[in-house]
Amino acid sequence: MDQVLMTGDQAIYNPNFGTLLVIVTPGILSGTGNATFTSKKPICVQGDEMSATVICSYTNPVFVPPVTGPYVGGMGKITITALGPDQLSTVTKCGGKPIMLKGTTFQAQFQVTIPAMGPAPTNPVPDAPTAYPGTGQFVTMNMTVKDSK
User: Fold this and answer.
1) Pairwise CA distance, residues 42 & 32, whole Å
2) How many domains does the chain have?
3) pLDDT single digits (tens) 53-89
4) Can you give the pLDDT at residue 8?
5) 133 close to 112: Cβ distance less than 8 angstroms
6) Residue 124 lies in a domain
7) What's the mean pLDDT in 116-134?
8) 10: domain range?
C-alpha cells in the first residue's frame, strides 16, 4: 500500500543537477482528479507532475571562487521528466489515467533559462545554456488514502 498524492503535496528536488548546484524550492502538486471523500482535495493523476515545475537560481562550481571580476549566478526551470515505476498505480485510475503515488524517486531536469556569468578580465563568460538531469521525491500530508499499487 502506498499513499495517494493530492493537491498541495510537494515535489522535493535534490540540489545537484549534473555539475550545477541549484537553489531548489519545492514544487507544489495540483491534482486534476476527483476529490477524495476524506480529504476533500483533488487527487493527482498521471500528467499532474507537470504542475510541480519551479523556477530556481543556480551556481556553477566551475566559476567559484571568482579569480577576477564578478560572478553572476543563473536561473532555470525544474520539471519532472519521468515518474518512478512505483509512482503510478497499476490498479486505480481516475478519468482513465493512473493515480499518482508517493513512491520513491522521480527523474527531473534543470533547464538553464538565464546562464550564469563567469568572471573574466574583460568580458564575463556565460555558462552554456543546457539541460541537466536530477532527481527528487514526493512528500505528502496524506496519511489515510492509500492504493495497493
Assistant:
1) 6
2) 1
3) 999 999 877 765 545 555 567 899 999 999 999 999 9
4) 96
5) no
6) yes
7) 74
8) 2-141
The answer as to whether 149 is a domain residue is no
In this prediction, residues 21-41 reach a mean pLDDT of: 89
Backbone angles phi, psi at 105, to 5 degrees: -130, 140
Q: Per the domain annotation, does 147 fall within a domain?
A: no
Q: Is 63 helix (H, G, I), strand (E, B) or coil?
A: helix
Distance separating alpha carbons of residues 88 and 44, to the nearest angstrom: 10
Query: What is the DSSP-derived secondary structure letter of residue 128?
Result: P
Report helix, strand or coil for 119: coil
- pLDDT tens, residue by residue, 83-118: 999 999 999 999 999 999 999 999 999 999 988 876
Please report whether residue 148 resides in a domain.
Answer: no
Chain-centroid distance, C-alpha 142: 19
DSSP summary character for residue 56: E
Output the pTM of the full model. Answer: 0.86
| Cell numbers placing 77 | 526551470
- Please say whether the beta carbons of 141 and 84 come within 8 A: no
Instruction: Report the alpha-carbon distance of residue 107 to residue 32 in Å, rounded.
Output: 21
Q: Which residue has the higher pLDDT, 106 or 145?
A: 106
| CA–CA distances in Å: residue 45 to residues 5, 62, 83, 139 | 8, 39, 11, 16
